[in-house]
Design brief:
8 helices; alpha/beta; 55% helix; Rossmann fold; five-stranded parallel beta sheet; two-stranded antiparallel sheet
């Protein structure tokens, strides 16, 4: 059995790999496209729906927490315009009802079909890009005329080909993939907050 490397080299290697996942043209290009979609949604009073499983579910919730609260910002004229956004994985009783009565593959697509309208935005988060319930929600979103965004990694899976904009982290590590998704949400939150303040 090989010994675990000492902590310092392990941490340094992890940080180098995390930096490499962020320091690439794909990241800026994807964030630019996503920011533009979010800004159009805010301007048109459209709703942005986020969803994912496990760690990606927490990222979806984190997105809504930060963007809904922070991204409107405070302008010289008062509060900025807020985003309308929902994390579909936050309603645990509803999620378990869909899973129990219909099937786990429909836990996001069912509520999305009931709530969303043409012109809204769906943000699908899946480290592998192959979660069946995430893919089904994207299929429904596209059929309803929503703009679709995918945050994924590990080659992108099926998700990358299904969405209008895909941010595919160039890593086979779930940790680095999820790290990058969290940086994405914080970069977007800060940019959208500051963009509103400067514009107003």
């Amino acid at each position: 059995m090989s010994e675990l490397p000492t902590v310092a080299p392990y941490v340094q290697k992890y940080v180098r790999e995390a930096h490499a996942a962020l320091d690439a043209p794909y990241f800026v290009e994807a964030v630019e496209k996503i920011a533009a979609i979010f800004l159009r949604a805010r301007s048109a009073d459209r709703t942005i729906y986020f969803f994912g499983n496990g760690g990606s579910a927490s990222t979806a919730s984190h997105f809504v927490t930060d963007i809904a609260k922070v991204a409107g910002g405070t302008t010289p004229h008062g509060p900025g315009k807020r985003f309308r956004c929902v994390a579909l994985n936050d309603n645990v009783p509803g999620l378990t009802a869909w899973a129990n009565d219909v099937g786990y593959a429909d836990v996001f697509s069912g509520p999305l079909r009931a709530l969303a309208e043409k012109g809204d935005v769906a943000v699908a988060i899946s480290g592998s890009g192959n979660s069946p319930n995430v893919l089904e929600a994207v299929r429904v979103a596209r059929s309803m005329g929503l703009t679709t965004i995918g945050l994924t990694g590990m080659g992108g899976g099926k998700l990358k080909e299904m969405v209008d904009v895909a941010l595919v982290v160039p890593s086979d590590s779930m940790q680095h993939t999820e790290d990058t998704h969290l940086v994405t949400l914080h970069v977007l939150t800060a940019y959208l907050r500051d963009e509103q303040a400067v514009r107003d």
